[in-house]
Every structure is written in structure tokens, then in C-alpha cells.
Amino acid sequence: MEGQELPYVLIDCIGGKHGVYEDHVGFLEKHFHLITMKEYLENKEFLSKKIRAIYMWYNKPVTNEELLQGLPNLKIVASSGVGIDHLDLKLFSRYGVKVSNTPFAVSTDTADLGMALMLASSRRLVEGYQMAVSPDTEYFPADWLGAEVSGATLGIVGMGTIGYKVAQRARAFEMKILYHNRNQRKKEEESAVGATYCKKIDDLLQQSDFVLLCVNLTPQTHKLIGKRELGLMKPTATLINISRGLVVDQDALVEALQNEVIKAAALDVTYPEPLPRDHPLLKLKNVIITPHIGSATKSTRRLMMENMIESIQAGLAGRPVPNEISL
Fold first, then answer.
1. Residues known to be catalytic
2. CA-CA distance, 143 to 60, in Å (whole number)?
3. Which residues, at least 6 apart from 180, have a Cβ–Cβ distance to it below 8 Å?
4. Distance CA 237, CA 18 (A)
5. DSSP state of 132
6. H or E element at residue 201
7. Run of H or E including 111
8. What is the pTM of this model?
9. What is the DSSP string of 227-272?
């Protein structure tokens, strides 16, 4: 309503390493009065009772008990992306603060990247590029070969929104699709993509040519893939991770790759990010690593922002919050 004060919303900063994108600010300011952490810390007495929502863009600002204690009128925290491992849900519940994220906004692009990593690894695109541009290359060897994706078996660990979209894409490659999930999908959903449920992850690991991880990081999925699981995979198999780095035991992965327990790995996520520059994963030719870019397209980041705005507006108005996380 014209003349009505806009809700005060806390952000980390504008621009820079973790800040809200500068080209998003104008749109956000049509809906909210944005307060940076620096402004808040400099004027706590006035702003503490004004701020009613937190716009958490890529895990910032860090929202801990000290911050919540200082924001008595906080109603909602809107977090970008699909991961929730950075959120203390029990803490928010104690303070009666609602929490939302943007799982559907990121699903299409993240699924696309999962397929891109599978294709790049199987066809050795990074190595091929390096060979093609190297000043030492005199000829292209005829026996320089990759692995076929079409007709291969893909095992998807985590058949949520992203996992299902990966399956939709994989079906176009005539892949045999297996999946492991906490709950089995409906029969019609399985039929639509030709997917077969594996109640035990071991069965999926033993049969798959490509194992793709797209689960949330929880205590149950922390180091879900370790030495034992890698040992169950085919020696010709590739591990693809588009979930969180800590879903994989990285030391066990290094050992498996060095000892040819599995053929290759393609990782959009590691722990930490970025890896130390002397980390052994960075030195292995059978590894592709990208800088956590699953949702990194302009249109998706814009959609994430719009989803977060909708969640904050709903939370402040007392309406059901889109994409609310159960506490």
C-alpha cells in the first residue's frame, strides 16, 4: 500500500563474495527495506525491533542464537538453495521462527549439471580439451577412448525433485535407471522415467555404471559413500556428486581413485570449498571438479530471489509459507 512502511529485512551485504547480487537489489527494495549486517550492528537499538525477516543468500548472514536473541520480532528466515545443513532448525523452532528454502527453483539447472558432469567425465572432455590446445600435441591418438553413456546403467541416490529430473534426462539417453530413496516413488512416477527402486543402496552400487548423488546432507547421509560403498561399485564406474561434499568420505574417494577401485569421479561439491590447492583430488586425471555451480544461471538465481520474496511476504502476512521447511 502506498505510504505504508516496507518490512525491514536483514541481509548480509550487497555485492562482494557473499552479498546479495547488485542487480537484484532494485527489485528487492520494491518489497523490503534492506538492512545490511553492518548497518544492524551499528544501530542495534533501533533496528533490533524493526527487523522481521532474514534474507539468507548463500548461507549469509550466519543466523545463530545470539542474532535471534537480538531480533524479538523476527518471523521468518528465507534461505536460498535447497540445502538445509547450514540451518539450525531446532533453534528456529525454539524461537518460533519459520524457515523456507528454494528447492524447486534450483532443480532444473542442478539436474542439467548432473548430466553435464556425467557426459564430461565419460567422454573425457577436460582431458580432450587439454590435448587439443596443448602446444606439445602433434597428433590425436586413435585409441584415446571414453565410455558410452547411452544404454548404460545410472544409479540415482536421492530421488527427490532433482533426482527425478535427472532421471527424466537420462531416459532420453536410453539409460537403465535405478534409484535408492528413503521412500519408493509412486508406480506411475517410476514408469514415466523407467526407473527401478532399490531398497538397499548396495544393490544400486553393485549394478550401476554411473552413481549420481543428490541427497540432502543430514546426519544420516554424512559420509554416506565411504570405503565400503566405493568397494561395492564396479571398477569401471563413475561417481557423480551434485549434493554436498560431506556426503562422500573424500579420503576414501582419493584412495579408490588412486587404486582404480572405481574409474572416475565428477564433483560439483567438495569439502571444504574450494579444496586446499595441494589436495590430491586436484591432481588426479580421472576427476572433474566444478565450483558448486548446480544452480548458477542468471534465470535460476532470479527465480530463487522471487521465491524468497514470496516466502517472506507470506510469513509476515500470516499466510502459508511456500517451500516452508518443517521444523
1. 244, 273, 292
2. 49
3. 155, 156, 157, 158, 159, 197, 198, 199, 200, 201, 204
4. 36
5. H
6. helix 201-207
7. helix 103-122
8. 0.93
9. HHHHHHS-TT-EEEE-S-GGGB-HHHHHHHHHTTSSSEEEES--SS
